[in-house]
Design a protein that fits this description.
Elements: E1 14-19, H1 25-36, E2 40-49, E3 54-70, E4 78-95, E5 127-131, E6 144-149, E7 157-162, E8 169-172, E9 179-181, H2 184-190, H3 204-211, H4 216-222, H5 236-243, H6 248-254, H7 268-275, H8 280-286, H9 300-307, H10 312-318, H11 332-339, H12 344-350, E10 357-358, E11 361-362, H13 397-404, H14 409-415, H15 429-436, E12 441-444, E13 447-450, E14 459-463, E15 469-473, E16 478-480, H16 494-501, E17 505-509, H17 516-523, E18 527-531, E19 546-555, E20 561-570, E21 575-580, E22 590-591, E23 617-623, E24 626-638, E25 641-650, E26 655-662, E27 667-671, E28 693-697, E29 704-709, E30 716-722, E31 726-733, E32 739-743, H18 770-775, E33 780-783, E34 790-793, H19 796-802, E35 807-816, E36 826-835, H20 837-877
Parallel strand pairs: 17-18
Antiparallel strand pairs: 1-4, 2-3, 3-4, 5-6, 6-7, 7-8, 8-9, 10-11, 12-13, 13-14, 14-15, 15-16, 18-19, 19-20, 20-21, 21-22, 23-24, 24-25, 25-26, 26-27, 28-29, 29-30, 30-31, 31-32, 33-34, 35-36
Length: about 900
């Protein structure tokens, strides 16, 4: 059974295997259904989830297509039934039913009131029971005690043992009488022990007779012994006749002997003719011999022509010879052109000659260049400053400094601040600070100060030795809080900082007797709070402590909360909320439903403004902390039409389906709607025999229809198609009660199986002259008229002429122009021939067998020819 059911309209056959007992009621029921071909129903449990308490099952209607009995005396006999589904009734999960256990009479009866004694003739529940020795139902003659089990049968099931004397066990079920169960000691005295290897038999001759076997001496007298190599035969001639073999003398007289190397052939010329070979003289006269190196060729010129080669003289006249070094080229200029090279004269005219001197200096050794050679011939030898003198040979140092625009050391010391003085040589320190912008920095023994600008400004940043730092106001003598935009809190105390940063308070206690709704507005901050039960305006009268969480959304002009929400939790885990709106609490406390609570609403509004759809009603399914699936219900407005969408999702396989209907009651965007069965009405009207109905689904690019029932005079049909392109497939019961499934296009499947059990057939005959019939059938490629697609196959009329059993006919309903007003297509019937390609396969199998028989005969003949040729060749080789 394939568990890939979802989305299928049909299910593959289901194999049912039982340990077969002909008298078993269940097996009798299956045999009756098979013999009468009656339809019945089975339920298959696909998946059982004990943790979730859910059971997935599929319910099928069908018939038994075949049955097969297997087994022998050494194995369990089984019956295999092939259940052929005709209809998928349902496929859906359900709760696992509870297991029924009964024990009406308790356990263990000892005569006390706590353990009641079993009294009725038959128990109505599972019980430990006692059957007295005097009871007519007692098979042993002594008291029996044991267990009686009840399973809604006419009789109960027992297993009992004797209470005194020899230990004996008895058992029975609902359909069999008492049966004695032997203990191991009783079995040892009653049965043969395996380890004794039959030595405990009392009469060996009777045992052999019962088993129909011979003793060793009887076997030796009756049969031949292998090591004697048939020497015990009483008539060798008769034995050879039975085996259809020759004696040694007959074989020597009838066949060529290998040791004679074909010398015992009567006529060698005839033998060579039969083998199609030549004698040595014939071969020498007919073929060139290797040792002659072609010297026995009769016409050398013709041989060279046949081989496409030249003689030595022809090659010398046609090709340049290596030894001539191209001196035998007939046209040197043309040859240079062909290989793209210059002559000597062309090279001299094209390229610069080789350089051998520079300015008259030969390049055969080092070249010494004079001043004139490098353009310095006019340079004189006047006196120059020497590098080694470090300018000490200057004639006028002051003039040299003037020419260079530099000061002396004394002038620099008088004009510039010296590094070694660390700015102590500054003439006006305050002016310097102003010039370099350092007048904003001030110091005192107790602090360091930084002012924002020169002039009168009360703000400064100060740092004190004790670690205090921040913005100080000189005019008020107070610290200035660092604003939020600068990374501060904008406050100088914790409460104002929490208010400015909207940080909730950490579990402040609300005093007893407080009106909490007024207190939260006056308290003025978000946070977490707790209290006892002695408060005014609590959500309810639950005793014990309460915890509150207040979130301020917007403050009013007085900086008090104007909008926000309170969440309250009692010590019994009940949760409430209340909304602050414009400084008031207009909606009162609302209890918040939790996961396992029942929620009751008069009306739920899922509003969204300026959005494509409304809010969604979403349900999630979790298992083991993992979301397995969900559903959503929402409203949207598309193309001027209001629509409601119901979506279902399976998150494990990323699969979903949705159903959408509009304000007019029309279905839209149906996706995966038919993954499971879709029923209209109760089960009693699921099959329509006297009338038909057509469901026309619009709103898509191509409207489609689904027809079922008895349209157009057809007995019973289910058809699917599109209004524009006609029918796609239909299944129907014909007037002759035969069943028919037609597809108007290509069918793809992993397998197509046909019932072929021998038990289903009679008048079985082998197809005769199969090869001749195959010759009468052609294989063709063709184009199908209705869709223009290329195909390959056979012609039904040709098959009908030679194998009518493999040809049939079918009715094709041709669509006529224009549907009726209710959308049902108009059509007329046409009948065409069809081919059962399984019948063609049977024909090809038999043709192959006939061909195989012919090939086998030819192979035997060829084998004999090959053996004879090999034998003749050996004779020739040894001649």
């Amino acid at each position: 059974y394939s568990n890939a059911i979802e989305g299928q309209k049909t299910v593959d056959n289901v194999t049912l295997v039982v340990n077969y007992i002909p008298t078993d009621p269940t097996h009798e029921y299956l045999d009756k259904k098979y013999d009468n071909q009656e339809e019945f129903q089975i339920t298959i449990f696909v998946n059982e989830n004990n943790e979730a308490g859910r059971l997935e099952s599929v319910m099928l209607n069908g018939v038994l297509g075949s049955r097969m009995l297997n087994g022998d005396k050494d194995s369990v006999v089984t019956m295999t039934y092939d259940f052929v589904p005709t209809e998928v009734i349902s496929y859906a999960p359900r709760d696992i039913p509870p297991v029924l256990r009964r024990g009406d009479f308790g356990v263990g009866s000892d005569g006390s009131i706590d353990y009641p004694q079993y009294q009725p003739d038959q128990a109505t529940g599972n019980a430990f029971v006692k059957i007295s020795a005097s009871d007519i139902d007692n098979p042993s003659g002594v008291d029996l005690m044991g267990i009686e089990l009840v399973d809604q049968q006419a009789e109960n099931t027992n297993i009992m043992m004797t209470t005194t004397g020899d230990l004996r066990l008895y058992a029975r079920n609902a359909t069999t009488p008492w049966t004695r169960l032997y203990t191991s000691g009783e079995a040892d005295t009653r049965y043969l022990i395996k380890s004794n290897n039959l030595s405990d038999l009392t009469n060996f001759e009777s045992a052999r007779s019962n088993l129909s076997v011979y003793s060793k001496s009887e076997t030796d007298n009756k049969f031949m012994i292998g090591p004697n190599n048939l020497s015990e035969l009483t008539n060798v001639v008769v034995a050879r006749q039975k085996l259809e073999v020759y004696s040694q003398s007959e074989t020597d007289a009838k066949f060529l002997q290998a040791a004679n190397n074909l010398s015992d052939i009567v006529d060698t010329a005839i033998a060579r003719t039969n083998l199609g070979i030549n004698s040595t003289l014939e071969n020498d006269a007919k073929y060139l011999q290797v040792e002659n190196n072609l010297s026995d060729v009769k016409d050398v010129a013709t041989a060279r022509t046949n081989l496409g080669i030249n003689s030595t003289i022809e090659n010398d006249a046609k090709y340049l010879q290596v030894s001539n070094n191209l001196s035998d080229v007939s046209d040197a200029a043309a040859a240079r052109t062909n290989i793209s090279v210059y002559s000597k004269a062309e090279s001299d005219a094209t390229y610069v000659p080789k350089t051998t001197t520079v300015n008259g200096h030969a390049l055969d050794s080092n070249v010494t260049v004079s001043k004139a050679d490098v353009g310095l011939g006019s340079v004189t030898d006047d006196p120059q400053l020497k590098i080694s003198a470090n300018l000490s040979d200057l004639s006028n140092v002051a003039k040299a400094r003037t020419n260079l625009g530099i000061n002396s050391t004394i002038e620099n010391d008088a004009k510039y601040l010296q590094v070694s003085n660390n700015l102590s040589d500054v003439a006006d320190v305050d002016t310097v600070k102003q010039n370099i912008g350092l007048d904003r920095f001030k110091q005192s023994p107790s602090e360091t100060m930084i002012y924002p600008s020169s002039g009168q400004n009360p703000y400064r940043i100060t740092i004190r030795p004790n670690g205090d730092w921040g913005t100080w106001r000189d005019d008020t003598g107070t610290w200035e809080p660092l604003k939020i935009v600068a990374g501060g809190t904008g406050a100088t105390n914790k409460k104002d900082a929490r208010l400015n940063l909207n940080i909730p308070a950490a579990y402040k206690i609300i005093p007893d007797g407080t009106n909490i709704l007024g207190w939260f507005i006056e308290n003025n901050e978000s946070g977490f709070f707790s209290s006892g039960s002695n408060l005014v305006n609590l959500p309810n009268n639950d005793p014990g402590w309460w915890v509150f969480e207040f979130n301020v959304h917007i403050r009013g002009g007085n900086n008090k909360p104007a909008y926000g929400i309170i969440k309250a939790i009692s010590n019994n885990s009940r949760i409430y909320s209340i909304v602050l709106e414009n400084g008031n609490w207009p909606y009162g406390w609302v209890e918040v439903p939790q996961q396992n609570n029942d929620v009751h609403f008069y009306r739920v509004f899922l509003d969204r403004h300026d959005a494509g759809s409304s809010g969604e009603l979403v349900g999630n399914r979790y298992q083991g902390g993992v979301q397995k699936g969900d559903f959503a219900l929402y409203n949207e407005y598309q193309d001027g039409v209001s629509k409601v969408t119901l979506r279902c999702s399976n998150n494990e396989i990323n699969k979903y389906a949705w159903l959408q209907w509009d304000e007019n009651g029309s279905l839209w965007n149906v996706q995966n709607l038919l993954n499971s069965d879709l029923y209209f009405g109760p089960p009693s009207v699921r099959k329509l025999h006297t009338r038909h109905a057509t469901m026309l689904v619009d709103g898509t690019a191509t409207p489609y229809y689904y027809t079922f029932g008895n349209p157009d005079g057809r007995r019973s049909v289910t058809e699917f198609g599109t209004v524009e392109d006609g029918w796609i497939f239909y299944g129907q019961v014909n007037r002759d009660l035969s069943k028919q499934l037609d597809v108007n296009g290509v069918v793809n499947a992993s397998a197509f199986n046909q019932a072929s059990d021998r038990d289903l057939k009679e008048n079985i005959e082998v197809i005769s002259n199969a090869i001749d019939r195959v010759r009468a059938i052609g294989g063709y490629t063709y184009t199908l008229k209705e869709n223009g697609m290329p195909h390959a196959g056979v012609i039904a009329q040709e098959v009908r002429d030679v194998l009518p059993e493999a040809s049939g006919s079918f009715t094709k309903y041709v669509d006529l122009p224009g549907p009726t007003q209710d959308g049902t297509p108009l059509r007329e019937e046409e009948r065409f021939y069809s081919v059962d390609y399984a019948g063609i396969t049977a024909l090809l199998v038999q043709a192959f067998k006939e061909m195989d028989e012919k090939i086998t005969k030819l192979e035997e003949q060829q084998k004999q020819i090959d053996e004879l040729k090999e034998l003749v060749q050996k004779l020739l080789d040894n001649k």
